[in-house]
Specification:
mainly alpha, about 90 residues, flat
Length: about 90
């Protein structure tokens, strides 16, 4: 029997983790798919497939109810702040 040396962990570490951003189109698509789920476990399978947490789905549903999640254009994340005005 040949013994193998344990593999060294990969020393590459990202400099800084970045927060994921989801477009309004994507969020609405996921909320609609979750609402269409009929059987027990379907929503969980959807979230696992997409790599999402249930808290995101909850927040996106609340935003939709409050009419804050709508599709105004591709990649719409909301109104941009005018940076020329200083508070």
């Amino acid at each position: 029997m040949v013994e193998r040396a344990p593999r060294d962990p990969d020393p590459e570490v990202p400099a800084k983790a970045r927060r994921r951003r989801f477009s309004a189109v994507y969020r609405l698509r996921i909320v609609k798919q979750a609402d269409a789920c009929q059987k027990a476990g379907d929503v969980g399978a959807l979230l696992r497939r997409e790599g999402l947490y249930s808290s995101l789905l909850t927040n996106w549903r609340r935003q939709r109810i409050r009419a804050r999640l709508s599709v105004c254009g591709p990649g719409n994340e909301g109104p941009r702040r005018d940076r020329s005005i200083r508070a």
